[in-house]
């Protein structure tokens, strides 16, 4: 193989596929990036058998071929090279020569025939979605997935398509985030669980500008086709919790509050909450005012913000981090807090629109706390 390509573009593409390479694998071949010439382009693949990322870049192909190069070493070399043209050549013994201006590296590669290719997914049966929309859907939910490896299903998000409605749902046992939207559905209904790791990589690649991308499914895999990049991930197996049963349909009080003021107050209160247990902050809801307090061994904090209250007074406490993470991703200037008792879930939702719901369990507090 002999190819010539742009250093900056190559470095960017290598960084993309490196997200699919695992350093924990016991198979040396999977610590590498697969490189292959294909129709005046170079195809790069990173694959850990659960997540595969494939992308293309334009190049001058002098001699066709393929090779597997150690991901970490190759990435470090390419990023450190000058902003110029890079020439990569290989021989029949899988030796690799990388040259750029006055720099030259000679390293050993791996036999490309031993590299496992990502699963094939039928690209002709796909949903087409706006990039900006799905990027926003991931951002507003993915932080709520579980990190508990004993509950692997909750380490992913439920993606539901029913008629022209799409939902992305994450929960971790303490909170639940649901982002909904409408799409044009020419494929049919689907219900799959996508690993959080894959969604984070999709989020990095999706653009915030106008444009669309494609999603397709098999029984066990999901394909994201984003411009010249493919992400193929193994779907999580198992039954996702019936999240609709967790959402309260009634409330005893509803608070309307300025999102930014609430976020700033909780962030300040959390400075002391971090010194205590459970990142605990307490809300005292009275008439047109909400007091936010936190106590620890080194001191206490008292914050007050104006609210519009419908219903009864209430004292309730929360893990401040769980509240802050939700408030940071809400697009609405004002939100509703819907509450029933100090041991019942709290619902956060935008004042305008009905496309987002965040449910958060309170922390039990004693009567004299």
From TrEMBL:
It is found in: Cytoplasm. One of its GO terms (molecular function) is DNA-directed DNA polymerase activity. Pfam families: DNA_pol3_beta, DNA_pol3_beta_2, DNA_pol3_beta_3. CDD domains: beta_clamp. Residues 1-117 form the DNA polymerase III beta sliding clamp N-terminal domain. Forms a ring-shaped head-to-tail homodimer around DNA. This is Beta sliding clamp. It comes from Tepidibacter hydrothermalis. The lineage of its organism: Bacteria, Bacillati, Bacillota, Clostridia, Peptostreptococcales.
């Amino acid at each position: 193989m002999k190819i010539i390509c742009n250093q900056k573009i190559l470095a960017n593409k290598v960084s993309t596929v490196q997200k699919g390479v695992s350093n924990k694998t016991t198979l040396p071949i999977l610590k590498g990036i697969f490189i292959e010439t294909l129709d005046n382009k170079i195809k790069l693949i990173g694959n850990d058998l659960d997540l595969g990322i494939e992308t293309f870049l334009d190049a001058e192909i002098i001699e066709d071929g393929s090779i597997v190069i150690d991901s970490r070493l190759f990435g470090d070399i390419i990023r450190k090279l000058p902003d110029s043209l890079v020439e990569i050549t290989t021989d029949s013994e899988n030796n690799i020569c990388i040259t750029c201006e006055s720099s030259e590296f000679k390293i050993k590669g791996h036999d490309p025939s031993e590299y496992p290719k990502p699963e094939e997914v039928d690209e002709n049966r796909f949903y087409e979605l706006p990039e900006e929309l799905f990027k926003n859907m991931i951002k507003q939910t993915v932080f709520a997935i579980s990190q508990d490896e004993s509950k692997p299903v909750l380490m992913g998000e439920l993606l539901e398509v029913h008629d022209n409605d799409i939902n992305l749902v994450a929960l971790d046992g303490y909170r639940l985030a649901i982002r909904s939207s409408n799409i044009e559905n020419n494929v049919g209904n689907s219900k799959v669980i996508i690993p959080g790791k894959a969604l984070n990589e999709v989020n990095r690649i999706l653009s915030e500008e106008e444009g669309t991308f494609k999603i397709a499914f098999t029984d066990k895999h999901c394909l994201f086709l984003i411009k010249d990049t493919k992400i193929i991930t193994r779907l999580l197996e198992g039954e996702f919790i019936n999240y609709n049963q967790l959402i309260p349909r009634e409330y005893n009080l509803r608070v309307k509050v300025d999102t930014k003021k609430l976020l700033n107050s909780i962030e300040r209160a959390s400075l002391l909450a971090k010194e205590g247990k459970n990142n605990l902050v307490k809300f005292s809801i009275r008439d047109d005012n909400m007091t936010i307090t936190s106590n620890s061994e080194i001191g206490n904090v008292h914050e007050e913000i104006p609210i519009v209250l419908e219903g009864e007074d209430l004292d309730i406490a929360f893990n401040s981090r769980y509240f802050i993470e939700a408030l940071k991703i809400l697009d609405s200037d004002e939100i509703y807090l819907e509450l029933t008792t100090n041991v019942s879930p709290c619902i956060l939702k935008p004042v305008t629109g009905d496309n987002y719901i965040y449910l958060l369990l309170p922390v039990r507090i004693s009567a004299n706390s």
